[in-house]
Amino acid sequence: MQIAEPLLRAIEELSKLPGIGRKTAQRLALHVLKSKDEDVSKLVNSLLELKTKLHYCSKCFNLAEGDLCEICMNTKRDQKLICIVEEASDVIAIEKTNEYNGIYHVIGGTLSPLSGIGPEDLKIKELLKRFENETIEEVILALNADTEGEATSLYLARLVKPLVTRVTRIARGLPIGGDLEFADEATIGRAMLSRNLL
Amino acid sequence: MQIAEPLLRAIEELSKLPGIGRKTAQRLALHVLKSKDEDVSKLVNSLLELKTKLHYCSKCFNLAEGDLCEICMNTKRDQKLICIVEEASDVIAIEKTNEYNGIYHVIGGTLSPLSGIGPEDLKIKELLKRFENETIEEVILALNADTEGEATSLYLARLVKPLVTRVTRIARGLPIGGDLEFADEATIGRAMLSRNLL
Predict the structure, then answer these.
(1) A4 near B70, Cβ under 8 Å?
(2) Do A32 and B51 touch (CB under 8 A)?
């Protein structure tokens, strides 16, 4: 096959991205090739700035441009309410709801004995340290609803219960717009158990 | 919503790419953020090199690093056989089959009176000029099998027929591995008409 070397290289690099196969990578590369120089440099600069300008917040380990993230610096947010999530992308997901006005703590994953990830690999020590310096009343556990997330939630709940007034976990149940017919048994079972009084 | 500015900008730039929505863009941006500096600069450089190192072949308008593309420069290829395609990506698709050993001509699209694309917007003048300088025996039309592709094929066939011995078009029929049950009527109808003697 005779394909120009720079194109092959771009396809190879693009196909390393998650969810991008060789066909998509080729389409993206050919798109870039056709794009205006200005648009390509905008894209490239935005990627480079991601690496140079963004770091992790020294307090909650969310993404931050400076030492602290915008959420930690925002004095209008409820500093007594702390939401524990797995990844910085989860902070974005919760922020999009506009339902939460507290602060966060990103632990950076879940406990996974099989993969050798123990409590010391997550930002749990740093979490406990926050209870010494901050006045936190409620801890909301918002980890994923899979096995590792559940196990880590239970572990964290036991750990922080003595330190705060309330430890809660976000609800599990039928997704909004979700069809009962297409929901799995575990979700329906949980939704039944956690039913609300009207 | 309080998301760090560089992340927002990267998501915006990435979601301008074809087939990349905001959710995918966010996943890609967060992946880049987590990647090693070295991997990011490899990706970025490959994209920049696409724009700086690749041009269009002055003869066939395929992608080329120099004045001529690798296919036009390859003396082992059959110079009497020319395959007309719409885009450079079609050259890649055909090259991958390893079934073709001739040369190409990329016309850069299809005729489309509704979008105001006439013969002068495609590389048709350049194609006709090649017949003066080169000894071409067969023209293979390998345009897409949609309405515009068909119309452009017929237009080109009429144009080049007086100039060469043979004008052919790649076969239309049931795709390999294709199920008769799931093929559309037009494809089955064409496959019946173009049936081969065994």
Answers:
(1) yes
(2) yes
Q: What is the DSSP string of B47-102?
A: HHHHHHH-EE-TTT-SEESSSS-HHHH-TTSEEEEEEEESSHHHHHHHHHHT---E
Q: Which of A54, A75, A57, A179 is nearest to B11 (CA)?
A: A54
Instruction: Tell me how far apart the 2 most distant CA atoms of chain B are, in Å.
Output: 68
Query: Domains of chain A, with CATH numbers?
Result: 5-53 (1.10.8.420), 68-197 (3.40.1360.10)
Q: What is the full DSSP assignment across A20-49? A: --HHHHHHHHHHHHHS-HHHHHHHHHHHHH
Yes or no, beta carbons of B2 and A49 under 8 Å apart = no
Confidence of residue A184 (pLDDT cuts 50, 70, 90): confident
Q: What is the C-alpha separation between B25 and B21, in angstroms, rounded?
A: 6
How distant is the Cα of B57 from the closest Cα of chain A, in angstroms? 11
pLDDT tens, B70-106?
Answer: 999 999 999 999 999 999 989 988 988 888 999 999 9
| H or E stretch at A154 | helix A147-160
How many CB atoms are closer than 10 A to CB A113?
A: 9
pLDDT at B174: 82
Strand segments, DSSP code E, in chain A are 55-56, 63-64, 78-85, 102-106, 138-141, 166-169
Nearest to B54 among A20, A33, A98 (CB): A33
